[in-house]
Amino acid sequence: MSRLMHGIGKGRFAVFGRAGMDMFADPPGTKAERAETFRADLGGSSANICAGLCKLGMASALVTSVSDDNVGRFCINKLKDYGVDTRYVKSLGGEYRVSLAVYESTMEDFQLCIYRNNAVDFQVTEADVDRVDYGEFGALITAGTVFAAEPSRSSTFRAFENARKAGLPVIFDIDYRPYSWPSAELASEVLSRAGEESDLIVGNDEEFGFMAGSIEKGLEKARELAARGKMVIYKMGQQGAITLVEGDEFRTGIYPVTAVKPNGAGDSFLAGLLASIATGHDLRTAVLRGSACASIVVSKPGCAGAMPTTTELDAFLASYHGPTQI
Question: What is the tens place of the pLDDT at every residue in 132-146?
Fold first, then answer.
């Protein structure tokens, strides 16, 4: 576990996964199907994590592919605007396309429509991951979407090998998206393998339950992974989270807010957790700060742009007497 904490403590992360374009209806409360105006921003789980880390004072580099067109360039420009290192972002010609997410800022019958046909981020190759200078980073992060198709599935497992050779811990956000996978059986097999090869695993009760075969067995699966020396964060929505590490378990609450959308919470949680560990907070406090980041993001339109800075996070926490008691 010391290797994991030491790696996170460096505050420099190589992040694998997708960048996309988000389009969300404006003003808040407008249904997308009735909208006349949309706002555009960076999207995609891994890109959001990168932006969240940078806004909290960390360094992150995204390893992915984007389409060689105006939308791909939009993503690269937005990544740079948030301070993300884009040297490992490859522009790819042909018919591959950046993912597009269209949604709204209202919890009433919230709708999220994602276009993933010919997704360009699945085209990351072993050559792409081999050119990463792993020695520059303290840890590798990946979201589970990268494992849904080839060649990115094999190339990301290759990146895991490269990270281990360089002494970097692997941080895995399960991030199970059924629509990306050809079958649930393959997803369960591949995501379980990724969990076995990771040092820190973050997911919600449904995702752990999926890996275990049923939601009732999710916590059992988390405990099984923790028993093998891994740190596990088992998220339960409004019920908070259970952190399992080195034979210990502790529960933490959440910071209730009026949400305008549900998406982006997990990405912000992970960025807040890692940045807080890196800046010297104990693990329980880091989990709570991650939870606060999640609350901040769901209370605002957009995802990457809604990620808090350290100043914003501290101000949010100062406005609360504490999290909900679990």
Answer: 999 999 999 999 999
